[in-house]
Amino acid sequence: xxxxxxxxxxxxxxxxxxxxxxxxxxxxxxxxxxxxxxxxxxxxxxxxxxxxxxxxxxxxxxxxxxxxxxxxxxxxxxxxxxxxxxxxxxxxxxxxxxxxxxxxxxxxxxxxxxxxxxxxxxxxxxxxxxxxxxxxxxxxxxxxxxxxxxxxxxxxxxxxxxxxxxxxxxxxxxxxxxxxxxxxxxxxxxxxxxxxxxxxxxxxxxxxxxxxxxxxxxxxxxxxxxxxxxxxxxxxxxxxxxxxxxxxxxxxxxxxxxxxxxxxxxxxxxxxxxxxxxxxxxxxxxxxxxxxxxxxxxxxxxxxxxxxxxxxxxxxxxxxxxxxxxxxxxxxxxxxxxxxxxxxxxxxxxxxxxxxxxxxxxxxxxxxxxxxxxxxxxxxxxxxxxxxxxxxx
Length: 393
Fold this sequence. Notes:
Layout: H1 15-23, E1 31-35, H2 41-47, E2 55-58, H3 65-74, H4 80-88, H5 98-104, H6 114-126, H7 130-133, H8 139-153, H9 165-176, H10 182-191, E3 197-200, E4 207-212, E5 217-219, E6 236-242, H11 257-264, E7 268-271, H12 276-280, H13 289-295, E8 300-302, H14 317-332, E9 344-348, H15 353-361, E10 365-369, H16 382-392
Parallel strand pairs: 1-2, 1-7, 2-3, 7-8, 8-9, 9-10
Antiparallel strand pairs: 4-5, 4-6
């Protein structure tokens, strides 16, 4: 097989392509997103109208929020962001499985007594809980089995208050499949009719670390985001994968062949909105990501987050683009041309030209579009952003 490069003029938005994909999303383009967190979930939901072939490579490195208890109890990768993206892409029509979706999005009450929550979990495992009873066989049995594995392995001290049932099912599947995420992600995708592909960026069970300009070393995603703990007081100088949470112990992760194959068949690659370091740059750290991106001659797009990002408070838009390219070149090679790594930056029309001039000077095309409404701020309006992406694909 050989690959050729074809260029075409694009009108933004391309109404012909948009109508074609709206009429048959099953034949929509394969848009590949490097992302994590919840910032892209609204766009992912909207994207289902245009394509059922989007690919989402998600970070499994979180160490706070809904994933924290499971990571500490079972020494496993984070699954909260994977679960939320699977739910965002779930089939919401009558052809899907709304009863499975309801179970996966159910959370135990935060104020309930621990014994009552354990009893409720036992009813789910037995199949007598109303949320589980509503699910048809054999899906019900598959879900009961995953919850049963989780219950058996669960430490007596595990706190079920506020726990997501979807997370518990994913954890049970991970533990029951020789500590592998891929089989249970595949199963859940089928159970809820995911209209796209969701994968962890790597199979490795690792954490995130950063050395600040001040010399301080911070280990753990939950200490970097400025959400659960105070924001960083010094810029990030070095960002890396780490073996554990106790001390600096840099680690190497590999970009799996199955994910590399997805990059090689993508029609567009998008560096998506989200916390700049822990949701976006974290996806670029596994060995092989930069080379895979550089080897694919399709549009490569960066869509920066809106609003203040505590992780990158000191970085303007041009700084973020430069940092993104720097981490891609750690794997692709220091001399890798910019056009092989990034071609477009999409921003809202309100962004001043002064903020984008330096990016344009590097040969990157800046597309200024109307992407925000009063109703959607501080997030992008899914419709114009999705239409921009499918127009470029």
